[in-house]
Amino acid sequence: MKIAIFGAGVAGLSAAIELVDRGHTVEIYEKRKVLGGKVSVWKDSEGDSIESGLHIVFGGYEQLQQYLKRVGAEDNYQWKEHTLIYAEPNGQQSFFKKANLPSPWAEVIGGLQTDFLTMWDKISLIKGLYPALTGNEAYFRSQDHMTYSEWHRLRGASEHSLQKLWRAIALAMNFIEPNIISARPMITIFKYFGTNYTATKFAFFRKNPGDSMIEPMRQYIQSKGGRIFVDAKLNRFELNSDESIKGALLQDGHKIEADAYISALPVHNIKTIIPREWLAHKYFRNLHEFVGSPVANCQLWFDRKITDTDNLMFSQGTIFATFADVSITCPDDFQNGSGTANGGSVMSLVLAPAHQLMEMPNEVIIELVMKDIHDRFPLSRQAILLKSTLVKIPQSVYKAVPDVDKFRPDQISPVKNFFLAGDYTDQHYLASMEGAALSGKLVAEKLLSRFGN
Ligand SMILES: Cc1cc2nc3c(=O)[nH]c(=O)nc-3n(C[C@H](O)[C@H](O)[C@H](O)COP(=O)(O)OP(=O)(O)OC[C@H]3O[C@@H](n4cnc5c(N)ncnc54)[C@H](O)[C@@H]3O)c2cc1C
User: Fold this and answer.
1) What residues does the Amine oxidase domain cover (predicted)?
2) What is the Cβ-side half-sphere exposure of residue 180, based on CA atoms within 13 angstroms?
3) pLDDT 10s per residue in the chain (453 long)?
4) Ligand 1 contacts CB of residue 265 (under 6 A)
5) For a 10 Å CB count at each end of the chain, is N or C smaller?
6) To test ligand 1's pocket by mutation, which of 50, 200, 230, 265 has the most ligand atoms within 8 angstroms of CB?
C-alpha cells in the first residue's frame, strides 16, 4: 500500500516507523524545513541548538521508548535522580524525594519527609488524594467535568499544597493553571505518581530531542525506503463522489495520490483543512472543540555556571514553570565549544501560563525572565548573559479543560481512506510525546486492519 502522512512530529514519524516496518510505501509531507513539530530543534546562525521546548522522557513512556530502541536511540537519553526539585527565592531549593521503597511507600514516606509542605498539607493530601490513588480509568473519566482546583477543594486537600505543589505540575503538563485544567489528567498523574515508582522517573536527551530522537527516527524511516519531503505544506483534499480522498494538494501545487492518507497535523491545523462536506459528520465537527495552549520556551546562555542541579526544576510565582540547566542535564550539547556555550550555564525554561506573553515584545519577556532568574539563582547576579532566545508557540498542545476529553477522536475517521494521528487523538495519555507515539502506533494498526492487511 502507498500511504501519505502529513506532519512530521512524533505522531507522524511513529506512524511511518510502523508502516515501513510492515513493508508499505510511505511518504511524509512536512510543512516546515525541520522535522519534529513541537519537539523540533534547529541550529541558529551561531551554531546553537534552539529547542521548541524543553522535553523530558518519563519512565511510563513505554511506546516512545520502544520506538527509541527500534531506531537505535535507546542510549540517547539519561535518567536523573527521582526527585521533584522546586527552586525557591534566594537560591534555596525544596524537594519532594521519593523514598527508596516500593510504591506507594516510596511516595508516602517521601511525601512525609518533604520540608516545603506543612503537616496539615501532608495529612490533607493523603486523605484527599486517596480516591485518585485507588481510582481506575472509569473514575478518572467521571471527574472530567470539573477543574482540578474544584476537585482538590472538594476533597478537602489544603490550599497551600494546591499552590505549592500541584500548580507547578498543571503548568508543566498542559501550560495552564489548576483552576483551568480538568481534574482528570491531574488525578491520572497522581495515580502514576503514587503507585508506580518507575513511571514517574524522568530522563533528559543526551543532546537535545532533535538530534537524540527525531534524527534517528528520520534515518530509520529513510533506511527502510520511506520518503520525507520538507517545505511541503498540505493545503486541501480533492474528493471522490463518495467523499473519500482522491488526492491531496500541497501549497506549491503538487498533487499527491495514495491508497490512504494520515493527518498527523496538530488539531488546530487539520480543522482548517477538513473539507466542508465532511463537516456533516460529528466526528469532524468535534475537532472544533479543541483550543491550543500558548507556551514559550526561553534559552539563556551565561558566562559561568549559575546552578549545579543536574535535573528538571520547578518553581512557583515565576514567569517560568519548569526548566533545567541543559549544559548539565544534556552532556552532549550546550558544552564549551558548541555554539555560544563557553562552559557556563545554558538555561532552557518553559514559560507558562503564556497567554499574556504572545504579543509582548521579546526584550520585555527576557527582562522578566532575568528578574526571576536573579531571584532564584543568586550566582546569576554576577554572571554575564551571553545570549537569549525565545520561541513562542501560540497554539501548542490542546488545553485539557473540563469536558473536552470526550471529543478526542478515534484514529479511524468516517472517511474510508482518511485517518488521524496526533497527541490529541484518543489514547490513554494526555498530549505528550508518549501520546503522539501511541497515536502513531494506533493509526497504523487501525489503517491496516481497515484495509485488511
Ligand atoms: C514547550 C513544550 C514543552 C513540552 N514538554 C514536553 C515534555 O517534557 N514531555 C512530553 O512528553 N511532551 C512535551 N511536550 C508536548 C509534546 O511536544 C507534544 O505533545 C508532541 O510533540 C506532539 O506531537 P504531534 O506529532 O502530535 O504534533 P506536532 O509535534 O505538533 O507535529 C505536527 C507536525 O505537523 C506539521 N504541520 C502542520 N500543518 C501542516 C500542514 N498543513 N502540512 C504539513 N505539515 C504540517 C507541523 O509543522 C508539525 O511538524 C511539550 C510541548 C511544548 C510545546
Assistant:
1) 10-448
2) 17
3) 999 999 999 999 999 999 999 999 999 999 999 999 999 999 999 999 999 999 999 999 999 999 999 999 999 999 999 888 999 999 999 887 766 766 666 666 666 677 777 777 777 777 777 777 788 888 999 999 999 999 999 988 889 889 888 898 899 999 999 999 999 999 988 787 777 778 888 999 999 999 999 999 999 999 999 999 999 999 999 999 999 999 999 999 999 999 999 999 999 999 999 999 999 999 999 999 999 999 999 999 999 999 999 999 999 899 999 999 999 999 999 999 999 999 999 999 999 999 999 999 999 999 999 999 999 999 999 999 999 999 999 999 999 999 999 999 999 999 999 999 999 999 988 999 999 999 999 999 999 999 987
4) yes
5) C
6) 265
Cell for 62? 513505554
SS3 314: strand
Task: Tell me which amino acid residue 443 is.
Answer: V
Tell me how far the alpha carbon of residue 269 is from its chain's centroid. Answer: 17
- Distance of alpha carbon 104 from alpha carbon 115, whole angstroms: 19
Give the amino acid at 277.
Answer: E
The backbone torsions φ and ψ at residue 414, rounded to the nearest 5 degrees and listed phi first, read -70, -10
**What is the number of the ligand 1 atom nearest to the C-alpha of 56?**
8
DSSP 3-state assignment of 20?
Answer: helix
Q: Which three cell numbers stand for residue 376?
A: 532564584
9 Cβ inside 6 Å of ligand 1: yes
Residue nearest atom 12 in ligand 1 by C-alpha distance: 432
Q: Give the closest residue (by CA) to ligand 1 atom 34.
A: 7
C-beta neighbour count of 439 within 10 angstroms: 30
Tell me the C-alpha distance between 240 and 378, whole Å. Answer: 64
Q: For atom 31 of ligand 1, which residue has the closest CA?
A: 9
Task: Dig out the grid coordinates for 272 from the structure.
Answer: 482548517
User: Best mutation site among 13, 54, 55, 290 for ligand 1, i.e. most ligand atoms within 8 A of its Cβ?
Assistant: 55
List, in order, residues 6 or more apart from 44 with CB less than 8 Å away. Answer: 50, 339, 389
Asked if residues 443 and 420 have their Cβ atoms less than 8 Å apart, the reply is: yes
Task: Spell out the residues 6+ positions from residue 276 whose beta carbon is closer than 8 angstroms to its own.
Answer: none
Pairing label, strands 418-420, 234-239:
unpaired
Beta bridge partners of 325: 347
